[in-house]
Amino acid sequence: MILVLTPDTRPDTPEFKQLLGHLANLPGISTRVHTEVGIEQALTEVYLIGNTKALLIEDMQNLPCVEQVVRISEEYRVLGRHKDDHRPTHFDYNGVRFGQDTLNVFAGLCAVDTLEHVELMMQALRDNGQVCTRMGAYKPRTSPYSFQGHGKACLPYVFELAGKYGIKVIAMEITHESHVEEICEALYRTGNSTGVMLQIGTRNTQNFELLKIVGRQQDFPVLLKRGFGITLDESLNAAEYLASEGNRKVVFGLRGMKTNMADPHRNFVDFAHVPVVKRLTRMPVCIDPSHSVGLRASSPDGILDIMHVTAQGVIAGANMVLVDFHPVPGKALVDGPQAMLIRELPFFLEDVRIAREAYEQRVALAGRYREDE
Ligand code: PEP
Ligand code: MN
Known about the structure:
Blueprint: E1 2-5, H1 14-24, E2 29-37, E3 42-50, H2 57-61, E4 66-70, E5 90-93, E6 96-99, E7 104-108, H3 115-127, E8 132-134, H4 155-164, E9 169-173, H5 177-189, E10 195-200, H6 208-216, E11 222-225, H7 232-244, E12 250-254, H8 274-280, E13 285-287, H9 289-293, H10 305-315, E14 320-326, E15 340-341, H11 345-372
Parallel strand pairs: 7-14, 8-9, 9-10, 10-11, 11-12, 12-13, 13-14, 14-15
Antiparallel strand pairs: 1-3, 1-4, 2-3, 5-6
This protein binds phosphoenolpyruvate (PEP) and manganese (II) ion.
């Protein structure tokens, strides 16, 4: 059970102490307090753990400072959607809103290779009104002999250029806890000219120790990719690891499932799960069409498969699109064959806009049918 307290409840008030005193006397129940300090207000939630079945919602509702009582009936205690659960389905980071009702495109380099390519990419993003991007510095590679990413060496110029071109959020994969520290330090040195969304890749979805460490910090939001060979439930529980440690700024990423049934695509596109994740949890949902499809094939209609599946995800309500672009894909050190060209960026963005508009029309249509019921 979760007690959502009135906004800005302070822990040093007699009412709050009275509440905790009352809860401490409940047999077989332990409590965990979580406070999230936002720009406008501080929100506190008290988690009741143990045998809460015997507790009556009405009794809890009447306790001091309590605004809302949520009985947790399903999995994913913190990030899940529960009955009569009015907790938010969005968060803000560095001036950008991420929610189940918004859409952000993160077009960029799979892996940072040269300063020139980073600059060309960011310039194109700015010219096309974009404030988010993807830039890989730490790359998990199948072969130990493949390029592993420039690591912390590239962070200063990536962050400086982001500041120069007005990029507010960079999705950047980390594979080890030390990378969080390196990113923090480099951001600080470049005057916090941009923000970072830490990405945990599909190979680390169930790296529980990494999840716990990343969950304990609240400086950066997290994009958790679905594990490519585990169930959706297992991946959602992995997201819950981040939240249970304190970080609820989590976006869930669909990136396709590994099976040769997907041939000729790199992975089996799983964007049918966009509405499922939105129904089961309060997380915004990201789709990664590049790592799902993995190649630049196009169909007779002249539309790349990557764009077709992007549209499929967006028309189903996706909230974020992570997509590989590169100024010279032939020279990319990682995943060149799936990169889109910079000149295709306006085409891609317009296609996304059309799909989003169609999604909004579908929602409005569904609303009209609901009213008729
Ligand atoms: C990536 O986004 O660069 C990446 C490696 O993705 P995934 O973890 O989905 O393979
Ligand atoms: Mn890649």
